[in-house]
């Protein structure tokens, strides 16, 4: 029977009690409230209502303040599409004053960091207009997603959303500096 | 403010540096050797210069930490070859290394003498801190391990003034405070807000910042009553403990717009100095009520030629030809009005790896600090 075992494929980490493999890494990360998909859906509804009512700033603020860190992939994708929608509705000229108001308010730098996370997530998605998760994303154990191959040619919609993200990114970095980008990479609460 | 004193030692990264107590000797970790520089009164330049005097050879992988004990003058080094050596001067003026039994199976990442100089702590990639002390019976340095609850590489260690409490920053995002009490070496410490009874490996505190980015450096305040750490999310977090086994009185996290800091130092109870990937040195001021970024040590004037230490151009011929090739003009002088944009506006031309107290004034405030960077410079700054 020993002859049948392929020694090369044995996961030796699983046999070592000291190994990180046998340790639940989530105990090291900040506690996040689990959020169900239906809650995300309700929130999306509220944000869209604000947006329809012409209060884009309130909609953005609400979406960022209640970012569902504890949701599953589907819930997170749903929230991303809402944030993308709100961002697309705000005109270029309004971006900077809006960001300034947001940044200077109480807890504003936190909100800006969250917005930066959504910008990067959105840009990483390739075609953010479609609600389904693209298939070329391979979720990594680290919580980050790696893009297998970008498809910028994903139709007019994709390119347009990308230009929205890029102009937001430019305005946001002007305000919050590279520190915020580093926080997107190091934060364990992913969006 | 006086201009910083810049010593450009070589063109290689400086992982760690340490001055002797009289500030005449400078130990610099360069690749697999430690170079000892001696201060000579004045060369051609305006200030004192440092001349290479000796080399400590023995490690066969990159050296990650070097520390000179201020009173005994002993030098301890740690390296990626999983070893640490204690170097002592012999009668003939040569440095004699003693191997320390670290018993770790990954690289040693940092090393610091305790203020009592009877012990030192070595952080490692093996999720272990080796607390080393001298065993007179066997005539060598042995170590005791702090293992739990470390879950990842230890990036930095820092001592409390009582030489028993030890702070460690780790890539699992936590800054922790341990007891490193060793019977026979240490005196029983006084009870403090960190704990009352402190047997070895007691965890006195475990702190996390909101994003849980990995911790680059930790430091106790001069009195030992507060702990500060800087993490890879560009933040600085200050913890004020309230009492043993109790939640801290205040945990203040300051997120900055800058790139992350790799080194942190308390210049007084109410001021911190930080440096890192942003290549500059920044000051923070505050108390248990709140902290904020209060300024930088860099000069504000941009692109002016008055900054000392930068006049001598590195590889100027190479720069000139590169500039002619890329921009079609001779470096520096050219159509754009003589502004050389290939240089950073900071004194260090690459990220800063360590920040050290250089001189303290009568009241225990740090008056001057030194920084060592990836650009091979050691700079002495006046606060």
TrEMBL record, chain A:
Q: Which InterPro entries does the entry link to? A: ARPC5, ARPC5_sf
Name the UniProt key words of this record, in alphabetical order.
Answer: Cytoplasm, Cytoskeleton
Location in the cell:
Cytoplasm, Cytoskeleton
Q: In which broad location class does this protein mainly occur, judging by the first location in its UniProt entry?
A: cytoplasm
Asked if the Swiss-Prot or TrEMBL record annotates the protein with the keyword Nuclease, the reply is: no
* Cellular component GO terms, alphabetical: Arp2/3 protein complex
List the Pfam families.
Answer: P16-Arc
**Protein's GO biological process:** Arp2/3 complex-mediated actin nucleation; regulation of actin filament polymerization
Q: Which domain of life is it from?
A: Eukaryota
SUPFAM superfamilies linked to this entry: Arp2/3 complex 16 kDa subunit ARPC5
* Assigned protein family: Belongs to the ARPC5 family.
Task of the protein? Functions as component of the Arp2/3 complex which is involved in regulation of actin polymerization and together with an activating nucleation-promoting factor (NPF) mediates the formation of branched actin networks. Arp2/3 complex plays a critical role in the control of cell morphogenesis via the modulation of cell polarity development.
The protein's name: Actin-related protein 2/3 complex subunit 5
Organism listed in the record: Oleoguttula mirabilis
TrEMBL record, chain B:
Keywords from UniProt, A to Z, are: Actin-binding, Cytoplasm, Cytoskeleton, Repeat, WD repeat
Top-level division of the source organism's lineage: Eukaryota
- What are the subcellular locations of this protein? Cytoplasm, Cytoskeleton, Actin patch
Q: Where are the WD repeats?
A: 56-88
The signal sequence is none
Keyword match Repeat: yes
What single Pfam family name could you report for this chain, choosing any that match?
Answer: WD40
Q: Give the family, as the similarity comment puts it.
A: Belongs to the WD repeat ARPC1 family.
**What name does UniProt use for this protein?**
Actin-related protein 2/3 complex subunit
What organism does this protein naturally occur in?
Answer: Oleoguttula mirabilis
């Amino acid at each position: 029977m020993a002859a049948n075992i392929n020694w090369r494929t044995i996961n030796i980490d699983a046999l070592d009690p000291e190994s990180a493999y046998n340790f639940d890494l989530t105990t090291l990360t900040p506690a996040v409230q689990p959020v169900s998909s239906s809650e995300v859906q309700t929130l999306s509804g509220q944000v869209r209502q604000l947006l329809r009512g012409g209060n884009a700033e309130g909609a953005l603020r609400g979406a960022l303040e209640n970012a569902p860190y504890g949701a599953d992939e589907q819930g997170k994708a749903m929230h991303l599409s809402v944030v993308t929608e709100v961002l697309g509705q705000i005109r270029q000229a309004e971006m900077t004053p809006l960001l300034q108001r947001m940044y200077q308010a109480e807890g504003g730098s936190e909100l800006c960091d969250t917005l930066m996370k959504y910008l990067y997530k959105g840009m990483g998605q390739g075609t953010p207009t479609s609600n389904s998760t693209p298939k070329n994303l391979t979720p990594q154990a680290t919580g980050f997603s790696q893009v297998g191959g970008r498809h910028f040619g994903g139709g007019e919609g994709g390119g347009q959303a990308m230009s929205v993200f890029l102009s937001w990114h430019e305005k946001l970095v002007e305000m919050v500096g590279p520190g915020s980008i580093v926080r997107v990479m190091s934060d364990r609460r992913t969006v | 403010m006086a201009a910083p004193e810049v010593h450009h030692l070589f063109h290689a990264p400086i992982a760690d540096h340490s001055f002797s107590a009289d500030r005449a000797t400078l130990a610099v970790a360069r690749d697999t050797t430690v170079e000892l520089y001696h201060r000579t009164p004045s060369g051609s330049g305006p200030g004192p210069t440092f001349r290479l005097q000796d080399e400590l050879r023995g490690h066969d992988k990159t050296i990650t930490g070097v520390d000179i004990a201020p009173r005994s003058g002993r030098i301890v080094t740690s390296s990626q070859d999983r070893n640490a050596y204690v170097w002592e001067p012999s009668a003939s003026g040569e440095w004699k290394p003693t191997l320390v039994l670290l018993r770790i199976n990954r690289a040693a990442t940092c090393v610091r003498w305790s203020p009592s100089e009877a012990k030192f702590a070595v952080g490692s990639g093996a999720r272990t801190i080796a607390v080393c002390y001298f065993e007179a019976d066997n005539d060598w340095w042995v170590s005791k391990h702090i293992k739990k609850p470390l879950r990842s590489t230890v990036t930095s260690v820092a001592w409390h003034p009582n030489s028993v409490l030890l702070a460690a920053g780790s890539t699992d995002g936590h800054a922790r405070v341990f007891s490193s009490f060793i019977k026979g070496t240490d005196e029983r410490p006084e009870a403090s807000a960190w704990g009352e009874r402190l047997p070895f490996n007691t965890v006195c505190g475990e702190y996390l910042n909101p994003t849980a980015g990995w911790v680059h450096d930790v430091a106790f305040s001069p009195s030992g009553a507060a702990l500060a750490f800087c993490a890879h999310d560009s933040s600085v977090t200050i913890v004020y403990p309230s009492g043993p086994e109790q939640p801290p009185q205040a945990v203040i996290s300051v997120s900055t717009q800058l790139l992350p800091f790799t080194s942190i130092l308390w210049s007084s109870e109410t001021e911190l100095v930080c440096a890192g990937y942003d290549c500059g040195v920044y000051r923070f001021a505050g108390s248990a009520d709140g902290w904020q970024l209060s300024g930088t040590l860099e000069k504000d004037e941009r692109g002016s030629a008055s900054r000392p230490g930068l006049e001598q151009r590195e590889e100027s011929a190479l720069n000139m030809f590169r500039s002619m090739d890329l921009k079609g003009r001779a470096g520096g002088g050219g159509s754009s009005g003589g502004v050389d944009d290939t240089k950073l506006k900071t004194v260090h031309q690459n990220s800063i790896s360590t920040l050290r107290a250089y001189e303290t004034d009568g009241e225990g405030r740090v008056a001057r600090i030194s920084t060592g960077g990836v650009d091979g410079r050691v700079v002495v700054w006046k606060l």
